[in-house]
Write a structure and sequence with these properties.
Number of helices: 5
Number of domains: 1
Distance between the termini: 16 Å
CATH superfamily: Response regulator
Shape: globular
Number of strands: 5
CATH class: Alpha Beta
Helix content: 40-55%
CATH topology: Rossmann fold
Radius of gyration: 13 Å
Order of helices and strands: EHEHEHEHEH
Length: 122
């Protein structure tokens, strides 16, 4: 059965690119365009991995990450933060919130796919 990825990002170009990349690798993809929708989607049917932007409408990525980490239904969930916020303090905050990986934009699509596969498939 295909691993499921939830993309939580409000930038259409990034969503389109990530959606294409992940589907091409055989993953099942779901999209949410704001933080609240991301939390609802993840709790309704927990994916295997979330690609999570930080700068989101309604609820930022740090809050989304903390909410998901606090819910027992999402215990095995992998979270990859994808963000333009590249400062060391932002990265530390993301990892402290429970992210498994913190990737700054712009990012190498090949590298991102490899990292997602590593997290999901070992």
């Amino acid at each position: 059965m295909a691993k499921r990825i939830l993309i939580v990002d409000d930038e259409p170009n990034i969503v389109t690119s990530l959606d294409f990349l992940m589907k091409r690798e055989g993953f099942e993809v779901q999209v949410a365009v704001d933080g609240e929708a991301g939390v609802k989607a993840a709790l309704a049917s927990p994916p295997d991995l979330v690609l999570l932007d930080i700068m989101l409408p309604k609820m930022n990525g740090f809050e989304v990450c903390e909410r998901l980490r606090a819910d027992p239904r999402c215990r095995g969930l992998k979270i990859v933060m994808l963000t333009a916020k590249g400062r060391q303090a932002d990265s530390a905050r993301g990892l402290a919130a429970g992210a498994d990986l913190y990737v700054t934009k712009p990012f190498s699509t090949r590298e991102l796919v490899a990292q997602v596969k590593q997290l999901l498939l070992g």
